[in-house]
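FORM 7B: Structural annotation worksheet

SECTION A. Query
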Amino acid sequence: TGSPDPTAGIGEDHFSTRWVGTVQPANTGAYTIYVDSDNIARVWVGETLVVNKTSGTREEQSGTVALTAGQQYPVKVEYVHAAGD
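SECTION B. Predicted structure
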């Protein structure tokens, strides 16, 4: 709830942010990615858009992606926050 970085002058409402990283699964198989947010949220694993939440209401959405053990995949999460907790 609130700003991702108030020291950088980002207010608690009306901002967007992007996180990037990697994931390396221990096992091969289908993985379910969950998002619980009150605004727009998107998650990519590799080049695959796994979750594309576009509603402005709080809810959980999920998507499934097949991953191979030991392989590193880039992960990108984007979040748009309007107002409120």
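SECTION C. Observations
The beta strands are 15-23, 29-37, 41-45, 48-53, 59-67, 73-81. The first strand starts at residue 15 and ends at 23.

SECTION D. Sign-off
Analyst initials: ____
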